[in-house]
Each structure stands twice: as structure tokens, then as C-alpha cells.
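Data deposition worksheet. Section B asks for the primary sequence of the deposited chain exactly as it was used as input, without tags or linkers unless they were present during the calculation. Section C holds the resulting structure in C-alpha cell form. Section D is free text for depositor observations; keep each observation to a single sentence. Incomplete worksheets are returned to the depositor.
Section A, Depositor: J.P.
Section B:
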Amino acid sequence: GEYTIHATSYDEDATFEYELELAATGDAVFELSNLDQPIELGMSEDITGYVEIENTGSVPGTAEVVYITAAGSIGGSKFIYDTGITEVSLAPGDSTSATGQISSFEELEGSFDWAEFQPGDEVWTGFRVYDDFDADDRIIKAELFDSILISESQGGNSGTITGTVDGPDDEPIDTGTAY
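Section C:
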């Protein structure tokens, strides 16, 4: 837009210099949508998720997007996060996507003595947006979660079966191991 600056002086030969800095008003507002992650996983399967991020605010902005999971069944207050923090810078109306990966529930349980997972648990997992994840007073700007059910199966790796197949007259004819 156009701006007019008026200045008065008692000295008609006076000159004025102005340094004008114009700033947009408003905030960058980040919204998350289209969370895509498994609804069920075995204890030994890695957790991978995808989300879309849009700046619905009126000014450009930068934020950090983090994939996290609760450290136990729904209702837990401790979270474990993906170490691959995604930094996004978006103009108003622009969007992008982020993918996150977290170790399996089994590995997390072995790495953190306060994390407990077992088949049948529903675990809150999803994405959060922060201004600065490393800040002491980190502020959550947006979040999108859904539960993942920990299943009894292990993604097709159900263990080892060893046995003998009996032939006619109950004589063993084959011994083998199936995986």
C-alpha cells in the first residue's frame, strides 16, 4: 500500500530521513491433516507415520514437526519421539508433508525403563508442531494423534515350529523346522 509521512519543522530547509520497516500482522498458524500410520502393529515392528502440514495463518512461518508415541497405553503422560525432527518453512496457504519413524515398541521398552508396552495396548501416536523443540518451555502449536493397537502377531514372524510328520504305520518320515 501507499504511506504518507508528514513532518514539520521550524527550519524550512530541514531535511528528514526515515527508515521505515513494515511488518505483516498476524501469525503463522500450522495445521496438521491426513495422518497416515498403521492402526495395528506387532511389538517388533517399527512405527512409521506420514502427515500433511499447512500454514493457514496470514504470515510466513517456520516450525518443527516431530513424530511421537506415548510410553505406554492410552492415558500415559510420557512420550518418546523420533530423532528426525522435520523443520518446515511455509508461506501463508502453502503446505508440505512430513514422515516420521520410531523404533518398535519392543526396542523402545528395552531402551527406556519407564516405557511399558504389551499386546492389546492402544498407544497414542502422531505428530506435534513446535516453534522450537529444544526450548526449555516448548510450546505445542498443533498436534494430530490416533491410537495404534499392539497386536499379538509379529508381522508374519510368529516363531519357529519344529516337528515330525508321521507316515503309514505311525513311522516318522520327515523331520523339519518351519519358520
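Section D:
The helical segments are 105-111.
The first helix runs from residue 105 to 111.
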